[in-house]
Amino acid sequence: MVLYTPGQMTSYPSSPVKDGGLRFHFLGGGDEVGNVGCVLEDSAGTLLLIDYGFLPSNPPRYPDEAPVVADALFTHAHLDHFGMAPWLVAAHRTNLHVTPVVADLAEMLWRDSYKVSSIEGDPLPWDKRDLEEALGYLQSHPTGVWNDIGGWRWRSHIAGHVVGAVMYEIETPDRKILWTGDFDTCDSPTTHGAQPVYRRMFCSWKLHTVARITQNVPQKSSASSTASSRWWNEVGPLWFRFSPMGALRMC
Fold first, then answer.
1. Strand 95-98 relative to strand 138-140: parallel, antiparallel, unpaired?
2. Which pLDDT band holds residue 116 (cuts at 50, 70, 90)?
3. Of 29, 48, 51, 31, whose CA–CA distance to 40 is shortest?
4. Mean pLDDT value across the chain
5. pLDDT tens, 138-166?
6. Looking at the predicted structure, is the pLDDT value of residue 37 above 80?
7. Does a cis peptide bond (omega within 30 degrees of 0) precede residue 60?
8. Going from the N-terminus, what domains does the chain have, and what CATH number goes with each?
9. Fewest C-beta in 10 Å: which of 79, 128, 180, 199?
10. Would strands 201-204 and 176-180 be described as parallel, antiparallel, or unpaired?
């Protein structure tokens, strides 16, 4: 294993979350595309990681080290969202919650990533043994079914973008959140487009998507524009933006 020494390099704060509060701590992706990861924690100590990947650039860019976390949700099977999952298992024995499609794609994605890393001589925080072990920690969940983590519950909804991509509806004792990675409101030959889910917080890694939607809607009259316009009209007023360290502000 390279790059990380588990438990010694994490940027995650040790201070407790205030009563009734909810901490958002970005390990990567807060103000950039790729190498994403965000930890959510409430005052009761429920901890959840959403996505953990690296950017396959030259050289690759990696997120900050994740703290000890029992459960992680993954939005889809792309390296910048899912590429660091084997390290989570090796370091923390983290349960990897995914859709059935992502579970089927995981081994191919990770083996290909390992092969390319070996050929190009780039460091990788996990090895073949970690990959094999991570396959045993995959937990597959169909969309629309509620699941429990601590005092929270969550379920997934189709997010468009690619087959198997989802957004997560998360309910804590004090918050109702919709979290998405990459999403697309339009149907494609392989997957349905994302549909609005009504929650007080709408969080997305891809902040530029909002700009693209709002810029395109006035110039188009197609079905694609109609879908984007409906999404923005229904979900847009609830849009929040997060800074890299988790400060919350309205856009």
1. parallel
2. very high
3. 48
4. 79
5. 999 999 999 999 999 999 998 887 777 89
6. yes
7. no
8. 22-250 (3.60.15.10)
9. 128
10. parallel
The predicted-structure confidence for 40-73, as pLDDT tens digits, reads as follows 999 999 999 999 999 888 888 899 999 999 999 9
